[in-house]
C-alpha cells in the first residue's frame, strides 16, 4: 500500500534512506532477485527516487514475497499492493483485450510483439486494464514460451499427446493444450517444481530464463523451442495508489515506467542466451528447429473460439498487419 512515512531530510538523493521517503510504493514480482523484470523495476525505482528528490521510493519484493501472481494482482487492484509485474495469462479472464495477444503464434517474433504493444493496440489494452483499477506503466517481454518435461523430447506435435502440462490459470491456455492433444493442469508457478518431481504433471511451458532460474531444468531435462506463445507482460500500478499521487509524481512514475521497458528488454535478451547455455551445460536437451506448421495449424479451433466478435477479429487483423 502507499505509505506516508515522514518528511525527507534536506540533502542528496543518494543520502536519503528508504525510511525517510514520504511515499513508499511496494511492487510485487514472482521472479527471483536479479531476474530482468525485477532488475528493471529496481532501475525504475532509482529513477523515481532521483526525479522526486527522494520523496518517492519503490520497494521491489521478488520471489513471490507478496504472494503468487494471481493473489498479487488482486491485492494490487484493491490497493493493498501498489504495483505488480505480471504475465498476461492470469488477466485473460479479467481483461478480455489480453486474450487476443495471448493467442498461440499471434506474434511472429519478439520484435513484432514490441511493435504491436508499443503502439495503438497497446494503448487499447491499457484502457481495458484501467477498467479493472490497474494503470499500465509499460509492457515487458515475457519471452517465448516453450514446452519442457521429464519424460521425452518433443520433436513433433504427436509427442504431446496425452501428456500433462502445467499452464497458467487461463482458459486460452487450457484450450491451447487440448488443441495440441495434451492435458492442461492450471496451478501456481511456485508449485510446478514439486509437481513435476512427484509426477503430478509431466512438465510445463515457459521461457528459457524461467526454466533456468526456477530450477525446473533439474526435474525436466527436455526443452523444445516450439515458441507457441510470445507473451507480453504488464507493469501496472493500482488505481487506488495512483489517485493518491500528485499529478507531478504520476508523470514521473509514468515516464520512468515507460523507460524501464527498454531496460528490461535489453536485460532479457542477454538473460535468454545465458540461460540456454546454462541449462545445456547442466545436462538439459534443447530441441531446436522443429517444424512449427503442424503446431500452428492445430490452433485453428482456439482462434475460432476466441476470435468471434468484430472487435476481436479487427485486433487480430491489425496485429498481423503490423510490421
TrEMBL record:
Signal peptide (UniProt feature, chain positions): 1-17
One Gene Ontology MF term: carbohydrate binding
Entry keywords, A to Z: Periplasm, Signal
CDD domains: PBP2_TRAP_SBP_like_3 (cd13671)
The organism's place on the tree of life at top rank: Bacteria
Localization annotation: Periplasm
Keyword Signal: yes
NCBIfam families hit by this protein: dctP, TRAP_S1
Name of the protein described by the UniProt record: DctP family TRAP transporter solute-binding subunit
Amino acid at each position: 500500500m502507499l505509505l506516508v512515512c515522514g518528511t525527507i531530510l534536506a540533502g542528496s538523493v543518494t543520502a536519503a534512506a528508504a525510511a525517510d521517503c514520504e511515499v513508499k510504493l511496494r511492487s510485487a514480482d514472482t521472479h527471483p532477485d536479479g531476474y530482468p523484470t525485477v532488475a528493471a523495476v529496481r532501475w525504475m525505482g532509482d529513477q523515481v527516487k532521483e526525479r522526486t528528490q527522494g520523496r518517492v521510493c519503490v520497494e521491489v519484493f521478488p520471489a513471490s514475497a507478496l504472494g503468487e501472481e494471481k493473489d498479487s494482482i488482486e491485492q494490487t487492484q484493491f490497493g493493498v499492493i501498489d504495483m505488480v509485474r505480471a504475465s498476461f495469462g492470469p488477466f485473460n479472464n479479467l481483461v478480455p483485450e489480453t486474450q487476443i495477444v495471448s493467442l498461440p503464434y499471434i506474434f511472429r517474433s519478439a520484435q513484432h510483439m514490441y511493435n504491436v504493444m508499443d503502439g495503438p493496440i497497446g494503448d487499447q489494452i491499457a484502457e481495458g486494464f484501467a477498467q479493472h483499477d490497474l494503470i499500465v506503466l509499460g509492457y515487458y517481454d515475457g519471452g517465448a514460451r516453450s514446452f519442457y518435461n521429464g519424460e521425452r523430447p518433443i520433436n513433433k506435435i504427436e509427442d504431446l499427446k496425452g501428456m500433462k502440462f502445467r499452464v497458467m490459470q487461463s482458459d486460452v491456455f487450457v484450450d491451447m493444450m487440448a488443441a495440441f492433444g495434451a492435458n492442461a493442469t492450471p496451478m501456481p508457478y511456485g508449485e510446478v517444481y514439486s509437481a513435476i518431481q512427484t509426477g503430478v504433471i509431466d512438465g510445463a511451458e515457459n521461457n528459457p530464463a524461467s526454466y533456468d532460474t526456477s530450477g525446473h531444468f533439474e526435474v525436466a531435462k527436455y526443452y523444445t523451442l516450439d515458441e507457441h506463445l510470445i507473451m507480453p507482460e504488464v507493469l501496472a500500478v493500482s488505481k487506488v495508489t495512483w489517485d493518491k499521487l500528485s499529478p507531478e509524481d504520476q508523470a514521473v512514475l509514468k515516464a520512468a515506467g515507460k523507460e524501464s521497458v527498454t531496460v528490461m528488454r535489453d536485460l532479457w535478451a542477454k538473460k535468454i542466451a545465458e540461460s540456454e547455455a546454462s541449462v545445456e551445460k547442466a545436462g538439459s536437451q534443447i530441441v531446436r528447429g522443429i517444424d512449427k506448421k503442424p503446431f500452428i495449424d492445430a490452433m485453428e479451433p482456439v482462434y475460432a473460439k476466441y476470435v468471434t466478435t468484430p472487435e476481436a477479429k479487427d485486433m487480430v487483423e491489425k496485429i498481423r498487419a503490423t510490421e
